[in-house]
Structure formats: C-alpha cells, structure tokens
Amino acid sequence: MFTALDRIAAARATPLTHRVTTTFADGAERAHHTRSAGTAELFAIGERRKIGRDLISRSADLTAGPLVRVVSVAITELAADERIAA
C-alpha cells in the first residue's frame, strides 16, 4: 500500500519535460518547468491571463522601472538532453 509520501516521491522522481516561458516587454523572460504537457498548459492559462497587463517587476535592478508588461507566453517541450531530473 502506498502512502502519500510514496506518491509524492514517485511524482518528484519523474523528469521535468516541458517549459512555459513568459516574455516581458523589457526583454526579460521567466521560465517555469513542468512534468507534463497538461501541467504546462494549466500553468500557461494563468500566465496568458496576464498578457497586456502591467505587473510589478520582481527584478532586483528595476532598470525598466517598477512595472513590466507581459507580451507573450510559450510552451515548449524539452529535448531529451535538456530534461531536468528531479
């Protein structure tokens, strides 16, 4: 019988296979890695809601000012040699 900790350990053992990349108007990018295409799509839905909106910059240097605009969101599958083992 599997416990919750066993299931969590099994899920963490699977490699990260997809990347969601959010691009900002100042050229900055933020990437989020996921373990499946479905999870990547769910994360991207939330990111796509931000397209065209001004967000508070989380950048430490704030060279573009305190606000940044989300320009695009892309989902890419990582190549076999790029996959991240957990």
Give a short synopsis of this structure.
With 86 residues, the protein is of the alpha+beta class. The protein has helices spanning 4-13, 37-48, and strands at 18-24, 29-34, 54-56, 67-77. It is elongated and about 55 Å long.
What labels would you give this structure?
86 residues; alpha+beta; 4-stranded antiparallel sheet; 2 helices; 31% strand
Task: Quote the average pLDDT.
Answer: 88
Strand order of the largest sheet: 2-1-4-3
Helix and strand sequence: HEEHEE
- Total DSSP helices: 2
Number of strands: 4
Name the beta content range: 25-35%
Question: Main sheet, how many strands, which sense, barrel?
Answer: 4 strands, antiparallel
Which word captures the global form? Answer: elongated
What is the straight-line distance between the termini?
24 Å
Query: What is the CA-atom radius of gyration, in angstroms?
Result: 16 Å
Helix content: 25-40%
Structural class: alpha+beta
Uncertain segments are none
Structural features, described:
The chain has helices at 4-13, 37-48; strands at 18-24, 29-34, 54-56, 67-77. The two termini are 24 Å apart. The mean pLDDT is 88. A hairpin with a 4-residue loop joins strand 1 and strand 2. It is built from two helices and four strands; from the N terminus they run H-E-E-H-E-E. The chain has a four-stranded antiparallel beta sheet, covered by helices on one side. The protein has 86 residues and is α+β, with helices and mostly antiparallel strands.
